[in-house]
Amino acid sequence: MLLILIAVLLSSLFYYVQAFKYGLSAKRWALAGLIAGPMLLPIFTAKKRMAVRKATGFNSIFLRA
């Protein structure tokens, strides 16, 4: 039980920091991380990718170093 609680809290912190970094609503993602935990990762990754594509444009190249 303690391991599940730690995983949910760490994932909430992870989603908060990453959402803040990519310009998404950080509080909303932190709350969703508290509710869904690590199972939210595919949805978060898709939203993050859409936000980056929206900011850079769909016909541009985005290179990660």
Highlighted features:
74% helix, 3 helices, mainly alpha, 65 residues
What does this structure look like?
The chain has helices at about 1-20, 25-35, 40-55. The protein is mainly α.
* Low-pLDDT residue intervals, each spanning 5 or more residues: none
* Structural class estimated from helices and strands: mainly alpha
Q: Strand tally, please?
A: 0
SSE pattern: HHH
Biggest sheet overview? none
Instruction: Give the helix level as a range of percent.
Output: over 70%
Please state the CA-atom Rg, rounded to the nearest Å: 13 Å
Question: What can be said about this structure in brief?
Answer:
The protein is mainly alpha-helical. Helix content is 74%, strand content 0%. The relative contact order is 0.15.
SSE topology:
Elements lengths: L1 H21 L3 H11 L4 H16 L9
Helix pairs in contact: 1-2
